[in-house]
Amino acid sequence: MSNGKEQILLGEEEISRTLSRISHEIIEKNLDLSSLVLVGIFTRGVPLSKRIAENIKTIKGLDVPLGEMDVTFYRDDIHELEPTMNVEKTHIPEELAGKTIVLVDDVLFTGRSIRAAVDHLIDFGRPAKVQLAVLLDRGHRELPIRPDYVGKNIPTTREQRVQVLLKEIDGKDQVILKDGDSD
After folding, report:
1. What distance in Å separates the CA atoms of residue 105 and residue 46, rounded to the nearest whole number?
2. CB 92 within 8 A of CB 65
3. Residues 182 and 7: beta-carbon distance below 8 Å
4. Which of 16, 42, 99, 102 is 20 to 30 A away from residue 137, measured at CA?
5. What residue ranges define each of the domains in the chain, with the CATH number in brackets?
């Protein structure tokens, strides 16, 4: 039961506009789009990467290869996770050598999931570059990780929770900020 405050930070239109801007920034920063591969981090980074790929196709007429990555077994807190957690299959669509990989995630917080994603990615080869696109950056980094593309910076306390809802998973697009005692 929730007894804390909730604030809607982004709605459907704002999320769409934000992803469109990120897509344009990716195009501008990467002159050779033929070497670009988007890799979504489960769970919500996967549909976000698909939306970005759709935007790039609409803008440039180019199909960007898409991958999906589950970083569960690369996390440094794996011993604290529930033993019944669902683990998704990682799929990297092609050889990484010479490619620019854009990791896509919903929320950047401590940076530990992104560190795990980079570790996992290296198991598939050595890309020319790895970039990071996130819908939200809420600060509180514990590792020296900085996104290349940020939808929105959201100042939070460590106790607050950011919940991203996406149509593909949750039936609607919305970003909610919850106080620490909300669930």
Report:
1. 8
2. no
3. no
4. 99
5. 12-158 (3.40.50.2020)
| Phi, psi dihedrals of residue 162, rounded to the nearest 5° | -105, 125
From CA 110, how far away is CA 116, in angstroms rounded?
A: 12
* Residue recorded with tokens 């050889």: 95
pLDDT in tens, 104-132: 999 999 999 999 999 999 999 999 999 99
**Across the strands, what pairs with 183?**
none
Beta strands in 22-148 (DSSP E): 36-41, 66-69, 100-108, 129-137
- pLDDT score recorded for residue 85: 67
Q: Which amino acid is at 66?
A: L
Residue located via tokens 């939200």:
136
pLDDT value at residue 84: 63
55-72: burial string, b at 16+ Cβ within 10 Å, e else = bbeeeeeeebebbbbbbb
Distance, in Å, from the CA atom of 160 to the CA atom of 163, rounded to the nearest integer, reads 10
